[in-house]
Design a protein that fits this description.
By secondary structure, this protein is of the alpha+beta class. The N terminus is likely disordered. Helix content is about 45%, strand content about 20%. The strands form two sheets. Strands 1-3 form a two-stranded parallel ribbon. Helix 1 packs antiparallel against helix 2. The N and C termini lie far apart (about 40 Å). It is elongated and about 45 Å long.
Length: about 110
């Protein structure tokens, strides 16, 4: 079977977070998937872990406190919710013979 490799930009934009528009910044992280076979359950689990780690990285501000912990948790949840349909599409493409090189995780903080 011929396997094609492509790059999929997985954009996770977070909206509706309690932040002043002027203070909102965007952050992104690249998630490598070229070493994963997304047709295998174990590799799909690895993708899930990588996406969660990337979402935590882009949502983490380095600040402490309950308010910041709540904001970070909301940011991560929203980023993963936006990623879910796109990750499902990437898995479906893999099952169709297309291998992906990387995914981009992006969140507004």
């Amino acid at each position: 079977m011929l396997t094609r490799t492509m790059i999929l930009a997985l954009s996770l934009t977070i909206g509706g977070l309690p932040a002043v528009a002027a203070e909102t910044e965007s952050a992104s992280a690249t998630v490598r998937v070229d070493d994963l076979d997304l047709t295998r359950a174990t590799d799909r689990e690895r993708l899930d872990v990588r996406l969660k780690n990337a979402a935590r990285r882009v949502c983490h501000s380095g600040l402490r406190g309950l308010t910041e912990a709540t904001r970070t948790s909301l940011c991560v949840s929203a980023a993963l919710a936006h990623a879910e349909p796109q990750a499902a599409r990437a898995i479906a493409q893999a099952q169709g013979g297309t291998r992906l090189a990387l995914l981009m995780v992006q969140a507004a903080r």
